[in-house]
Amino acid sequence: MAKALFGHVGGADPRIVAEIRRLQQRVRDLEAEVVRLQADNDALAAATHGDNGLIVPAQEREPALT
Question: Residues near 47 by Cβ (< 8 Å), separated by ≥ 6?
């Protein structure tokens, strides 16, 4: 009866172990991508806030067609 309550005694299913490892690696890959994208975003934000003339304030914009 105790075996029925705790499941089979054979140990972890190798397919489940492989799936867990695959998912853990996927999580690590996605976390690394998030860090990379945040760094890219920070660099782009710093470039737009710098005084490099790339962003023209709305008051200084000229109409494209007059």
Answer: 54
